[in-house]
Write a structure and sequence with these properties.
9 helices; Arc Repressor Mutant, subunit A; 6-stranded mixed sheet; 4 domains; 4-stranded antiparallel sheet; 12 strands; 328 residues
């Protein structure tokens, strides 16, 4: 759990409670699972509390009736800002700007954190829906992302050509975009694919054409996001979702590294010991990019032997590294 996540959890806990919570209760909720001593957790809580106060979030200290216990809470009437009516594109712009300031060390980082915290809870309390955007870094292809964001905000159909993993040819797709996210520096979006008639995840670097936002009836949405849709339910943040684990892969490990076969990010289906002592492991892969990165981490001690698409992906990664180093 990083610092920002911890501060958000602490704010939510103290804001939603109907009575003051003491440190013991907070250590079992907000700080649960952290491998630290109680004294260390107490010091962390004191620092977090002070930081929230510096950000303008008023954490009240409440003594018990008998004066033998101290509790904490955040008064709602002094926390929530008045409801602000923002257009969808204004909400996206504010979220993106705030994200860019978070952790940047600029003079505006603290106000940006405060605004983002307050707006998040204010929107949730008002029952508003906002586009599911997870901004991680400045995009390399701003034009492509701009079109997708436009379609997300206005709920317009997207049309583009897409080359799936293991396919040599791109196929025309029409997608209702529901959410956008970034993983390990790569951008993906999730939406209802008309071709497959199901929710799918698309990686931007596999889009081989311009993205066309439906120009018809520009002020009228083409679709509605399904009730209850939550991008966190659609995405396993350890890997991009939207597809089935339908790629079977084989990796051969040198004898001294046989133990590593069970440590991968894919489900291990079978193991076979070869005559020369090397171990051949078969996997069911849901996230090919992550799987290839994991296998390459072992250097020459692990070799992907199938399928051809994953072998080529590994070669592309290595070529990219060599080119970056000026090699051939």
């Amino acid at each position: 759990m990083d610092k920002i996540e911890r501060l958000i959890n602490l704010t939510a806990c103290l804001l939603e409670t109907k009575r003051p919570l003491d440190f013991a209760e907070l250590s079992d909720t907000v700080y649960r699972g952290l491998s630290r001593s109680q004294n260390s957790l107490k010091r962390m809580f004191e620092r977090d509390k002070d930081e929230l106060r510096e950000m303008g979030i008023e954490v009240e200290t409440v003594e018990s009736e008998w004066g033998d216990e101290t509790g904490y809470m955040i008064p709602r009437d002094r926390y929530y800002m008045p409801h602000i009516d923002l257009e969808p594109d204004e909400k996206v712009a504010l979220t993106m700007v705030s994200r860019l300031f978070l952790g940047s060390g600029t003079p505006f980082s603290v106000p940006a954190q405060l605004a983002l915290l307050k707006l998040a809870f204010e929107r949730q309390a008002a029952g508003e829906e906002v586009p599911h955007v997870h901004w991680v870094e400045t995009p390399r292809d701003s034009e492509l992302l701009g079109d997708i964001l436009d379609a997300l905000v206005r709920r317009k159909l997207l049309a583009f050509s897409y080359r799936s993993l293991g396919s040599d040819e791109a196929v025309a797709r029409e997608v209702e975009p529901y959410g956008l996210f970034n993983k390990s520096g790569a951008w993906y979006f999730v939406g209802q694919c008309h071709l497959r008639d199901e929710v799918r995840c698309f990686k931007l670097e596999r889009i081989t054409s311009d993205v066309e936002v439906n120009p018809k009836n520009p002020k009228t949405p083409d679709f509605e996001v399904p009730a209850g849709f939550d991008i966190h339910d659609e995405i396993d943040w350890e890997r991009p979702a939207g597809g089935k684990a339908d790629v079977k892969a084989k990796v051969v490990f040198k004898p001294r590294l046989s133990f590593a076969a069970a440590t991968g990010p894919a489900r291990l289906l079978a193991e076979k010991r070869r005559a020369d002592g090397r171990l051949e492991a078969t996997y069911e892969v849901a996230d090919p990019e992550q799987f290839v990165e994991w296998a390459l981490g072992f250097g020459t001690d692990a070799v992907i032997t199938s399928p051809a698409a994953l072998k080529e992906m590994a070669k592309d990664r290595l070529r990219g590294i060599l080119e970056g180093l000026g090699g051939s």
